[in-house]
């Protein structure tokens, strides 16, 4: 998705009316909440001064929960009831979760989203995330002492509609008013001021606790567009901890460990890893429950060596994301570092070498997403300084259209339209006496419905019977600020109406969006020909139906010879309808239209005569 700046008149507020809004980075490993105070974005710390909240929730037998550091510390004692990385389960069914069988949880496979059986009952990922969000909200209200007007919550750029919807639901459950969901790489770019300062193409390199995401963003004429995304959902800081943990086992010659000792040493490994980002060596000291103890010293160079291939694993997805965007290294104007694990110097070095530029890293990489979200939230809440009278808006990545006769896709909202937006188009009935209309909502750039993605089908029923073409059906497409589409159809003469809400980007990864666009460019010419043929076939069917209907009521106006001439012309059209000869079909349709001109004139005379029957000239002039 992309972002556009537009000015919204009358949204500026006086300084004393500052409205409190927050940005939330709901992370897999850690979550943060930030706000803008006196024009400066800042992360709101907890009461002990800690900016991060580990995204961990432990459920207790009494129905309560421990959240954050406390839950993280208890994780090894109670793995079944201590949920980590719940973000991986958001909007996902059991079959979508990799390694589900290796996780300590008691999954409960529900249609839709997976649920977890805990000592405090069955919990959905939405509820668990809501616990984290509610904790952050409390943290913000404690330090700001006011009620929040709303929050911007970040999600990975590749999150599909189900995952986005689940995130929104969690926020609502936590009592937050969601101003907008924002893509994480876009939030990071906003924090660096790339939204209003620079034109160019940026790579956002995000190495978190358990996931690696690379996004290529393009900024031009005020529009932010995610050109491609990629990454590795099973690569992050945790893997570096694990390497160091294995090294400790080896160096200290330890026997197989209990779960508690494993957890303890993993924590020690993480601490050492984080220290080695800024020191050339450190000590690892631990007293295990088994009675053994560990006293080791490790050099940063040793750690770099043992994690070299993990660093290398980030490079391939970067190259692939560039390729998907149709770009090469030289096209990248800058790189933004996101995620705590990008603090490691060896990661920074690899990124610099690959992109041949020093990455932007002066904003804390684990705060940058929350800070960008706070800036966006502040604007959406209506707090803006003079000269800042603009809003960031998303655009839809693929056109939204409707199926028309002949299997053609008619675009109702073209791609890259800024959202929220609404467009209406009028359609009519095809057959005499048609009382229902099937509406098929599609997404994509191609001309044929079969090449687009089907989003929803519904029917408008109860149209009063009328002649073909007499009904006026207005179909309205409306996309809200979060990209959710609703479609309504209304027959204007009778007022019959129906509507449906669909999810336009459901399950579409950005790679797929790119592929669908690519397909539409490469097949544009073939599509145009196919479209012309389909349109002619629809026209053929229409003229046959109309002629048939005229004959059945007014055949008496024609001589037998005339009737058989028309029948011959109809046959010709009907035979050519299913062949792929556009020119021949076009000629046959024209012949039929010409051949029935006289018939149409006689019918017209007759209807005028019957309408005027019994009326004096004065009445009608
Ligand atoms: P997520 O986006 O998955 O919630 P974060 O961006 O908070 O994750 O990153 C968490 C990871 O960053 C953890 O693996 C943590 O150990 C690592 N990390 C944090 N600080 C440092 C540091 N100074 N050096 C190396 N790794 C760090
Ligand atoms: Mg993150």
UniProtKB/TrEMBL annotation:
The keyword Manganese does not apply. Keywords: ATP-binding, Chaperone, Nucleotide-binding. InterPro entries: ATPase_NBD, Heat_shock_70_CS, HscA_NBD, HSP70_C_sf, HSP70_peptide-bd_sf, Hsp_70_fam, ISC_FeS_clus_asmbl_HscA. Pfam families: HSP70. One of its GO terms (biological process) is iron-sulfur cluster assembly. GO terms for molecular function: ATP binding; ATP hydrolysis activity; ATP-dependent protein folding chaperone; unfolded protein binding. Coiled coil: none annotated. Gene3D superfamilies: 1.20.1270.10, 3.30.420.40, Actin, Chain A, domain 4, Substrate Binding Domain Of DNAk, Chain A, domain 1. The keyword Glycoprotein does not apply. HAMAP family: HscA (MF_00679). Belongs to the heat shock protein 70 family. Chaperone involved in the maturation of iron-sulfur cluster-containing proteins. Has a low intrinsic ATPase activity which is markedly stimulated by HscB. This is Chaperone protein HscA homolog.
């Amino acid at each position: 998705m992309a972002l556009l700046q537009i000015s919204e008149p009358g949204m500026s507020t006086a300084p004393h009316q500052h409205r409190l809004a927050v940005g939330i980075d709901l992370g897999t490993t850690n979550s943060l909440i930030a706000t803008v105070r006196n024009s400066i974005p800042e992360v709101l710390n907890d009461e002990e001064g800690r900016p991060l909240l580990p995204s961990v929730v432990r459920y207790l037998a009494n129905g309560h929960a421990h959240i954050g550091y406390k839950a993280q510390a208890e994780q090894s004692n109670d793995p079944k009831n201590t949920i980590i990385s719940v973000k991986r389960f958001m909007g996902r069914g059991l079959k979508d979760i990799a390694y589900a069988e290796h996780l300590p949880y008691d999954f409960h496979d529900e249609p839709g989203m997976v649920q977890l059986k805990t000592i405090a009952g069955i919990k959905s990922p939405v509820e668990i995330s809501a616990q984290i969000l509610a904790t952050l909200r409390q943290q913000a209200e404690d330090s700001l002492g006011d009620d929040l007007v709303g929050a911007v919550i970040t999600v990975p750029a590749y999150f599909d509609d189900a995952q986005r919807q689940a995130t929104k639901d969690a926020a609502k459950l936590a009592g937050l008013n969601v101003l907008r969901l924002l893509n994480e790489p876009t939030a990071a770019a906003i924090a660096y001021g790339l939204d209003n300062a620079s034109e160019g193409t940026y790579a956002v390199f995000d190495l978190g606790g358990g996931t690696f995401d690379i996004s290529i963003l393009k900024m031009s004429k005020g529009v932010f567009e995610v050109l491609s995304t990629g990454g590795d959902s099973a690569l992050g800081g945790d893997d570096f901890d694990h390497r160091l943990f294995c090294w400790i086992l080896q160096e200290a010659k330890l026997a197989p460990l209990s779960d508690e000792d494993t957890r303890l040493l993993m924590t020690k490994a993480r601490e050492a890893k984080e220290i080695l980002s800024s020191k050339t060596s450190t000590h690892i000291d631990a007293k295990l429950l088994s009675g053994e103890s560990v006293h080791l010293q490790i050099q940063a160079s040793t750690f770099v060596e043992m994690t070299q291939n993990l660093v290398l694993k980030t490079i391939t997805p970067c190259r692939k994301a560039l390729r998907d965007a149709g770009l090469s290294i030289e096209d990248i104007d800058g790189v933004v570092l996101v995620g705590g694990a990008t603090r490691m110097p060896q990661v920074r070095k690899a990124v610099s070498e690959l992109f041949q530029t020093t990455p932007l890293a002066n904003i804390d990489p684990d705060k940058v997403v929350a800070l960008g979200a706070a800036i966006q939230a502040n604007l959406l809440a209506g707090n803006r300084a003079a000269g800042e009278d603009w809003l960031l808006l998303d655009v839809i990545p693929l056109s939204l259209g409707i199926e028309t006769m002949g299997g053609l896709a008619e675009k109702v909202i073209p791609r890259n339209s800024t959202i929220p937006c609404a467009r209406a188009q009028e359609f009519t009935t095809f057959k005499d006496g048609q009382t229902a209309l099937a509406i098929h909502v599609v997404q994509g750039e191609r001309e044929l419905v079969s090449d687009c993605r089907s989003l929803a089908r519904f029917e408008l029923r109860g149209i009063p019977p009328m002649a073909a073409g007499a009904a006026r059906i207005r179909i309205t497409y409306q996309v809200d600020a979060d990209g959710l589409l609703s479609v309504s159809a209304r027959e204007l003469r009778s007022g019959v109406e129906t509507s449906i809400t669909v999810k336009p980007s459901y399950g579409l990864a950005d790679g797929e969006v790119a592929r669908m666009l690519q397909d539409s460019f490469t097949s544009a010419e073939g599509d145009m020909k196919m479209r012309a043929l389909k349109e002619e076939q629809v026209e053929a069917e229409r003229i046959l139906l109309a002629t048939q209907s005229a004959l059945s009521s007014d055949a008496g106006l024609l001589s037998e010879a005339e009737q058989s001439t028309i029948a011959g012309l109809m046959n010709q059209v009907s035979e050519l309808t299913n062949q792929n000869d556009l020119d021949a079909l076009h000629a046959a349709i024209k012949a039929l239209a010409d051949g029935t001109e006289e018939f149409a004139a006689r019918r017209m005379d007759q209807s005028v005569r019957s309408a005027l029957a019994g009326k004096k000239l004065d009445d009608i002039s």
